[in-house]
Amino acid sequence: MKYLLLIFIALLSSCGSSGSDDTDFIGAANVQLEVTPTTIDTGDRLRVQIKISDTNLNDLIIKIRYPDSLSYVPSSATIDFQDDPEDATPNFNQTADGENYLVFFISSENFEDFDEATLEVQLRALNDLKGGQLEVDADVDDPLISNSREFDINQPEFTAEDSVTIKVLGEN
Questions:
Q1: pLDDT tens, position by position, 130-145
Q2: What's the CA gap between 63 and 50, in Å, rounded?
Q3: Would you say the C-alpha torsion 32, 152, 85, 75 has a positive or negative sign?
């Protein structure tokens, strides 16, 4: 009887495992930041791509933080679900304490048919920068709070989930 109980406990402890490694899941989604090129001259542009995967069932907030020596190129944002890019517009494009934030709210309905997406924006270099950070944060969009009130530039609730160091070369 003792051996049957041990076998039963072993079987129960193995039930319910999906086989996936849940240690990679971080909450809203997994995000990976890619920037090309990482060194530019003033006046040039960076292409910033955020690969979004393993999304939560809720809507998403994607926040991009970058130094004030860069500026967002208007109308440059797109979101691509399986090779079908669509224009995107940041819900917020704000600056505080020398850092800029681009914020996008993305509906979970977009991920019903696709497992991943790529959000792309362009940033233009305004001034030299020796070692600035571009960072991305993914959060769950609270359906009980209006999107117009959910992001506060004075309290951006930003924890970088991925970052890339960039350099802007000034005029000599």
A1: 889 999 999 999 989 9
A2: 10
A3: negative
